[in-house]
Each structure stands twice: as C-alpha cells, then as structure tokens.
Amino acid sequence: MLLLYSPYQTPRLSYILNFFLNILIGCEFRLTTDIDEFLSCNEPRLNYSDKNIYGGIWISSSGLLLSKEIINFRPEISKTSWGNIIFPAPKNKEVPFDIFSASFYLVSRYEEYLSFKPDEHGRFSPQLSVASEAEFLSKPIINIWAKKLSEILVSNFPELTFNKPEFNFISTIDIDNAFAYKGKGFIRNTGGFFISILKGRFDDAKNRLKVHWGNVTDPYDNYDFILQIHSEKKLNAKVFILSGKYGKFDKNVKMGQEIFSHKIKELSNYCEIGIHPSYKSNFTNTIFSEKLILEKVIEKNISISRQHYLMLKFPGTYQKLIETGIRADYSMGYSQVEGYRAGTCSPFYFFDLKNNKQTELLVYPFAWMDRTLRQHLKLSPDEAKEFIAKNISEIKKLNGTYVSLWHNESLGDTGYWKGWKSVFEYMINKIN
C-alpha cells in the first residue's frame, strides 16, 4: 500500500489518482491530508505538494487539481529527461513535472472546454492540441508516464506489489451506409446512376445495375464476413449503426427497410449493437428517438455509442449521452491523424469539468480508423499492416486496450478499398 500525501483532497485529485495509480499502474494507495501521519509512516510514501518534504517520492503540485474552476490557459511545454512534458517542475529531478496535472489536463479534455477555432464541422482539430504541439500526440503518453513512474516506485520501494491491467482488444465497426446501392429506392438509385455517368464513373454505374439485377453482391454487404471472422476468433464485435433520418451528412438506408432491419437483427444475435448518433442529432434533440428506433429493431436495450463524424463538444455531447442512457462511448479519437486524443490507450470515466465531478460514462479511446490509414496517411495495404503491427506491439507493452475502428464498406475489397479486407484480417490474426 502506498501512502500519498496532499494538503488538500479534491474531486479532480481523487479522480486522476484513481485512474493513474490504481487503473494504469495497479498500485493500491491511500490519500492523507495529515502531514504528521505522512512523516511518521514507515510504509512506501509519495508526497504530492509544492514542497519537498523529507521522505518518500516527491511530485511537485502545480495547483491545477486543487481548483474547481476552468481557467483559460495553455500549459507550458518543456523538454526533460522524460522527453517533452507539460506542467514542468524544474526543481524536481526524479519526476520533472506535475505528472498528475498533466495527465488530468489531457484525459479530461480540458483544452476542449476553452475557446478554439473549430473545423468545418465545428470539431476540435488535432493540430490545436497541446499534445500535437508537444509532439507526443501519436503516443499513449499517459500510459508511458505511468510505466516510468511505476519503475521509480519499484526502485524506491521493492516491497510494493502491483496488480497490473491486462492487454485487451475491442473490435468495433461503424455502419454509416448499410448498402452501396440496395435499399435506397428508385429516386436515389436513379440519381446515383446518372451522376456516375456524368462524372465518368462508369464502373460504379455498371455495378449499380448488376446489384439491382441480382448479378453481384452489394459491395457494402459484408455482414456475413463480419460475423464469420469474429466468430472464428471468439471476438464479440461492437457495431455502431446510424439510424437517423437521411440528410446531407447522414446517408444510411432507412431503418424501415426490411432488408436493413433483417441485417441489424442478425448482427444483434452475435454482436453488441450501439447507436451511431446522426450528424443532425448534434443540432437537434433526436438522439433519444434514434436510439429508440434501433432498440425496437433489435429488441434490446442499447448502452454504447460512437458519434457520427466523431462530433464531440464538451461537456454537452457526453451529458446528452448520459441522459439518453448511454454508459460507454467510443468516440474519443481523431480521423485525420494517428493520435491519442485523451493521451491514453486505456478506458476512463468521463470527468465533467463544468460540474467538477466524475460521471458513470466510460470512455474507450482509439488511435486511428481505417480512413486514417487509407485516406489521410495514404498507406498501401502492406504499409498499413506494418503500421498496425507496430501499434499493437506498443499497446501490448503498456497493457492498454486496443480499440480498432473499421466501416463495413472498407471490408468490401473493391474499388477504393481494394486490398483492405486483408489488412483487417491481418489485424485480427495479429491480435490473436
């Protein structure tokens, strides 16, 4: 047991100590605000304050975790023996920064509560993050810090025991567009056919006719493959389905279409179904009705979600999800770059900065999606396999949780996604 001293006990401090020490390191600890108890203790000790008290390990407090206000500031970046860090503490050589404040700042998404220049969808861009500026966005930096602190604890207190977390893998698939051609009605299909002709996409027009005549399978209809590969590997995939009404950024098949409902029902027998709140739901109060429609189809309650277009606004999006009955969310990531948006590859509970409290919403971060590799990084299938192997290896060493994000259309092995089905299969086999 580790005795940790702090002159104050606050919701922010209790939250990050539990996540950092208990969840990531697996170290049991007890927090005390009594300096005399700390000084007289013969057990392993850690001092978290602005003064280097005799005995134990010292981590210098910057004061961020003692506050309950949201202050408009940007933490200083410094180069140290630990690499680039934030919240530097130059007087401390062993741990040269406030590791707990730095971790809290990242995992709480503090910077996303402040004013920023949004992208065309109103989202926070990865280039704006302090992690990008500090050049550790592509690393699960909090897990790396946790591993290094655990090594310091072991070195100073060999008698300490740790209950380290185990590596975990979660396969997730988004269904933004259930079918490329099927189930979209006469008007959408006819319009799509002539648009393809006018733009010179003759193969697309030809395939549309072949699917309509029943000569070939719809390229997005990869549900048998999804069920088969997860069944063979004994994996319980999580499938997020867009059930909102048709719109500029919401182009799925209508939930009322029997062919779509049948596929969803079949998936629900083997996979956990989650809601993929529509783009429109961010500007209207439709998420509850979208969830209800999907629940009626699968005849089960839904408690997981991932935002379409990864539309996250703090704290409103997560507050709305909690009110709707969602208990776990998988939206914490970026599509444009490989990056750990919250600085970690481990699930954590959402801390509501506005109300200064931990919530019951469990957040599962991811580092990349299929489109990140193909569209933004412009990797070939072979390059993607190499990228994925390295990524899996890193997270395994850190005992993190590896969340993959694919779409049904990227598993079609045709057109733009030719060769990428093999990348998915490689990833699944590499995990196992």
Q: What does this entry look like structurally?
A:
It contains 14 helices and 14 strands. By secondary structure, the protein is of the alpha/beta class. The strands form 4 sheets. A 4-stranded parallel β-sheet has the order 2-1-3-4. A 4-stranded parallel β-sheet has the order 9-8-7-14. The protein has helices at residues 11-25, 35-40, 99-107, 130-133, 141-156, 185-198, 202-213, 223-232, 258-268, 287-298, 316-323, 370-376, 381-397, 421-431, and strands at residues 2-5, 29-32, 45-49, 57-60, 77-80, 83-86, 168-175, 238-241, 272-275, 304-305, 328-329, 348-352, 357-363, 401-407. The chain has 3 domains: 2-156, no CATH class; 168-180 and 218-431, Alpha-Beta Barrel (TIM Barrel), CATH 3.20.20.370; 186-211.
Q: How many strands, what sense, and barrel or not for the largest sheet?
A: 4 strands, parallel
| CATH superfamily grouping of the largest domain | Glycoside hydrolase/deacetylase
**How many structurally independent domains?**
3
Alpha-beta classification: alpha/beta
CATH architecture type of the largest domain = Alpha-Beta Barrel
Order of helices and strands: EHEHEEEEHHHEHHHEHEHEHEEEHHEH
Low-confidence stretches: 189-196
**Number of distinct helices:** 14
Radius of gyration, whole Å: 24 Å
Proportion in β-strands: 5-15%
Widest β-sheet, arrangement of strands: 2-1-3-4
Mean pLDDT: 92
